[in-house]
Amino acid sequence: MSEIELLKRTLEREREARKAAEKTLEEKSLEIFRINGELRELNLVLEKMVNVKKQESSELTMLTEQNPDPIIRVDLEGNILFCNPQAETLTELFYKGVKYDAADFWKYFIEKNIHANSQSLELSHGAKVFHFTWKSFQNLGYVNIYGKDITETLTSSHRLKFLIENLQEGVLVEDEHRDILLVNDAFVNLFGIPMLTHEMIGQNCSGYADISKMLFKAPDEFVVGITSIIRDRTLILNEELELEDGRVFERDAIPIFVEKSFRGLMWKYRDITLRKSKERILQFSEEKYRNIIRNMNLGLIEVDVKETILYANQSFCEMSGYGLDEILGKNPTQLFLTKEMAHLMYQKNIARQQGISEVYEIQARIKNGEMRWWLVSGAPLYDDNGMLKGSIGIHLDITKQKELERNLTIARQEALASVKAKETFLTNMSHELRTPLNGIIGLVRDLKRSVSDVKSLNQLESIHSAADHLSSILNDILDLTKIDSGKLQLETIGFSIDEVVKRSVEVNQHKALEKGLDLNFRIDSEVEKILIGDPLRVKQILINLIGNAIKFTNNGYISVRCFVKQTIAAKQWITFEIEDTGIGMEKDFVNELFEKFSQADSSINRPNGGIGLGLNISKQLVEMMQGTIQVESVIERGTTFSVSIPFRIGSQADIPVLVDPSSSDQEFEGITVLVVEDNKLNQEVARISLEHLKVKVDVVSHGLAAVEKLEHVSYDIIFMDLQMPVLNGYDATWKIRNELKLITPIVALTANALKGEREKCLEAGMDDFISKPFEDVDLIRVLRKHVLDKKSGSEIMRQYYDLSRLMKLSGGDIAFVKKMVGLFIKQAELTIGEINAALVEQNIDAIQKLAHKIKPAIENMGVLSLGAVVKDLERPVPIEEIDWSDVKNKVDYFTQRLTEALKELHKEI
Amino acid sequence: MKGIIFTEFLEMVESKWGLISADAIINHADLPNKGSYTAVGTYPHGEMVRLVVALHEQTQIPVADLLKVFGEYLFGALSKNYSYMMDGVSDSLTLLHHIEDVIHVEVKKLYPDSNPPMFDGERLDEHTLKLNYKSHRSMADVAEGLIKGCGKFYKDDLHIERIESNSDGTEVSFIIKRMNYE
Fold first, then answer.
1. CB nearest B36 (choices: A1, A13, A25)
2. A524 and which of A263, A561, A563, A903 could share a cystine (Cβ 3.0–4.6 Å)?
3. CA atoms of A856 and A575, how far apart (whole Å)
């Protein structure tokens, strides 16, 4: 056998084997495919079956869950495996309030009952009773427990018995033969029957009424009552029976019928003694409050939440004019209120709902159509449960008060308006009067300066005096107005009482002399030299009192005394006594003395009567100064006024530097002034006064003219009236300051000397204030303050000397003047050296002598800047009072100014 | 009988006696499919008998010895092809004990029409197993060879006592002792 054949065979075998294997594999694959298909079908069938089972199972679960009775499955240990909702509630029901886990409860249930081999169990909770049975599946390891609510199925007798035994009421049930079926302890106790309840059952109770009747107040009625109930077999409820011992019973008699045939009676007795007594107390107290409410003078209504009137008392009916029957059930808002008031009421009702009580006023229309104001106190009303059930309102008719109040308000407004009107009137009047008066006085003053004829001078003096008097009356009126409106302000400056008293006396002296009276004064040495207060006002008081004294005294004297009443700390109470030997006053008159216009009493003819404002002003001024004023008067003997005022003690430093009223002719020379004034007379007065001071004056008639003028011309100072046509002083000032941007000093000229005026002027941008009628001294003051002081070191200083006086003296001889200047230069240069040497040596005598020696020359040369300092230096001062640093300052100043002047004077030669 | 038995038998013949002997035996056995066996096929038991007889005539080695050698060889082959069936088994006695309830269950799953011999195991003690062979094919010799192969596979020194339960060789018991632990 060849090897090739062998291999061929082997190969053939292998091929055959492969084919066989492939065939087998194919067969196997087909088989698997087929089996797979079968499996899939099988799966579908299985799935369907499972779903059906699931459905069945869930339906079964629902069956148990929807079962109205509890079903529980527990394992043999007592653990709950399943429990339908009813059972869940039940476990909670049974042990509600006891902290007992539901599962634990069932464990307990199983141990106690299932393991103890009993077959069923009843458990009750409150009114519910449950019956439980169970089936054990030992092999499955659980027990099914089935409960049933048997509350309803319990026998009625069972329940009845239970109920009756536990009742607080006494109950007895008898059958149709009057044999006792049931009786409870309460019954036995109420009637005090000496038997136990179970002993009584079965006994006949026909004789009971007779035995018990003695307990009752009306024993026979009691028996008759029972007899008739038994006979009539009618239901009688809540019948009250009074007992001898004071108790009160309430009885129900309930006949029992079973299928229309009478089967007995149930008697129920309740002890209502306590309730009755409470009711009586309540009734009494209610009666009491009802009476109070009914009879009180305040109208009371009660409304429910819908605002319907439930109750109204008699007073309310009377207030509103309606009868009670007309009010009840009505809505008070609709019945009484106007639209606006209804809106208010709506808000009030909301407040009630929020539990807010309040008092308010409403206007109501009562039955007869009249409008009334009611003061209402409204409060919410709650029921026993704290729910809002309405509100209660107590009403008081305040119509009269309201009217009164309204009238008062009107009266007050009118009074205020009239006061205001008076004030305005007085202010305006004083202004109107003062403006011409100012002119008269100014012109008279000027005339006096130029007239030399004695007769004319006397007449002018009279005019001046009369005008001054008018002016003082005006001042009085203005003062009063100021005081009344609180616009008067007192000054607090240092002053000398001596001066004030002296001056006050001096002013009146000529009047006293005219009447041949002796006017004297005395000032105690204890009075401090310098006190702090308002000297002008003190002077005003004194002048007034002294003036009065002179007026009412025809013979004798007027004596003014000033002494210290008391010194407390840094204050002196100063008393001024003005004693006269005049006509005196009646007591009644003294009492009214300080009243305004008291002199309007025309019964006394007064030769020198003013209009009687002085005393009133004095009193008010004294009071403003915290002082007192008193009068003692005896008819035909005389009167003494005492004024006591406290003043703070002051020192030299408190005295303001007074304006030197004297001015040299040259002081204001060259100064240019613009006067803005509408009144022609006043324009003249201002012009004359200012020109008298050698000031160059321009006058315009109103603010606008001033503004226009100032656009082209510049002035050193402007005097500005306030009330002018076209453009008033305030607005003109505003324009000057803000539009022209000028800083020229502006001084207000006004007759309105009221407090606040000054502030108003300053606010408008003015610099100072002069009250009309002004004096020369006022002009001097403002010119110095606002022009010279500001110019010092500039224009004025350029005028180091003034040779006009020398020229006058020499009668215009220039050669003489030059000679004098030359001499002055020599003397001055010498003096400068000597005075400085004396300063080094501190030789005050030498300094004084040098100053004294050069003074006339300095005046002749018109070196104005040195006038004051030379005067100071020449004045002798005691050695011990010398302040060398002060002296040095003065000498330095003297030296510097004189040197400057000499430098300029050299040019004159 | 499963094809794997035939393919493994012919493999053994080829490897032990050469391709020529294998060819001769196949020719001599006069088989219906001329010896083209596949492991996935199933063939009549008689063909195996014819092949074994042919080998015996060729080699003059007693049939019983041939079958024992084949059984031992067969275990090696099976353990290679079906190693997953032996997962988790770490000694020979455990494997032998569970032939019936583990291995043959798996065989039946793979080849529902197969009819493997029954091997009922009975543990006599920790190191002794009684294995009852039962098959209409009367091939206890192959079984004995398989047992030996198993011992070799697990490197267990097995002592095998053979008890013939009947005369036709369809039921044989083996008392197998594991010696390497004594």
1. A13
2. A563
3. 47
